[in-house]
Design brief:
With 76 residues, this protein is mainly alpha-helical. The chain is 80% helix and 0% strand. The chain is built from two helices and no strands.
């Protein structure tokens, strides 16, 4: 696997995890306003939201890989 692909996959995995955590934090905040003291339950977003998150994170993961690759090439 090329370095660029490795960077993109690792970035996607980490940032997708972060995106799902942030999604759940937002859901928790809204639910607390509507129903105080409701027990929090971590969940995977609905499919349409998950796809949106994956597309956004995917685009930035690939961009990150290309930027890192360009920086490394300039240093050589």
């Amino acid at each position: 696997m090329k370095t660029k692909q490795t960077v993109a996959l690792v970035t996607f995995g980490l940032f997708m995890t972060e995106a799902i955590i942030h999604y759940n934090m937002g859901v928790k905040d809204v639910e607390e306003e509507l129903q105080p003291r409701k027990k929090f339950k971590f969940e995977i977003p609905p499919t349409d939201e998950l796809i949106k998150l994956a597309l956004i994170v995917g685009v930035f993961s690939v961009a990150n890989a290309y930027i890192i690759d360009a920086i490394q090439k300039r240093r050589k």
